Amino acid sequence: MRRRWSALEVVRTERRGHATEAARAALEDGVGLVVSVGGDGTANEVLCGFVDEQGRNRFPDAELGLLGGGTGGDFLRVLGSPPWDEQVEALGRPGSSIDYGVMRFIDHEGRSRTRPFLNAASAGLTGHVVARVLRSGQLSRRVLGPQGIYLWNSVREVIAYRSRPVQIQVEGQEPHTIDLSLIAITNGQYFGGGMWIAPNAELDDGLLEVVYTGGISTMTLLGLMTKIFSGRHLEHPAVVGRRGRRVQMRAVDDEGGPILVEMDGEQPGQLPAELWVVPHGLRLRVAGRLATVVDRADAAAGSPPA
After folding, report:
1. Burial readout 229-260 (b: 16 or more C-beta within 10 A, e: otherwise)
2. pLDDT tens digit string along 59-113?
3. Disulfide: which of 23, 37, 39, 129 matches 46 by Cβ 3.0-4.6 Å?
């Protein structure tokens, strides 16, 4: 990378939120490419440097580059999990426009917050699973690996979790109340260390994929866990799939404690939440299948990528 960019500056993150601060400072100084080196959580923090408190990309001409690593790496799975040499090479090519999501939620201090997500957001069981994963020690992560740490904590949480009534409304459709087990609202296809939660999701179609289930027994939920890595969970009658530009979720009652939310492997708060998509709102430099496809928005406009 230094051979390609003589002015390359490397910033090592020192605390939660540091990647957002570093990315924002670089972008405000006029940097045109900010590269996230890490997993989904690091990429999310860097994306937050682009996006303001209303969910708008303040730097639409700048590009986000990705070099994969970290615990999950789910966003890169939909692109074929390209090797590092291909990822580095892709940073020298113009990016493609993709969608990103935004979620407004309640943080752990009770304040309303707005934060973008690159890959996926979720609530219910998955929020509690991610909270467990984030509390896991380094030894557990090394022994179990990225997929194992999510699967082990998913099984533990399925056994402990109790469904709660939640009202879900996808824009243009009637509200629906369900004893929620989990709901995923995705831009990408994978989450939870390789779970193929939304096989039909696309990164540039201007829509969010919404998958949820509830009102089922613990044994049924454990059975779904065995199918989710292959995408076969969508065949189950208790699993609902929807698509839309905006989604609202709220707990019907206050009993049983907060219903936690998750986004890009981070656990920032709880319901109620509102989510929406920003179509073609981000230019992304990354290896894999996305990099081999001509950018549809730019092609329609008759101009090459910036």
Report:
1. bebebbeeebbbebbbbebbbbbeeeeeeebb
2. 999 999 999 876 668 999 888 888 888 999 999 999 999 999 999 999 999 999 9
3. 23
Q: Give the dihedral of Cα atoms 215, 219, 224, 226; nearest 10 deg.
A: 170
Structure tokens at 247: 């989604």
Residues composing the chain: 306
Is-cis flag, bond preceding 258, omega within 30? Answer: no
DSSP 258: -
Return the closest-CA partner of residue 263 out of 249, 252, 283, 253: 249
Any alpha helices (H) in the chain, and if so which ranges? 18-28, 40-50, 74-77, 84-90, 125-135, 138-160, 218-227, 296-301
> To which residue do tokens 């972008």 refer?
27
* Chain segment 135-176, per-residue pLDDT in tens: 666 555 555 565 566 666 677 777 677 888 999 999 989 999
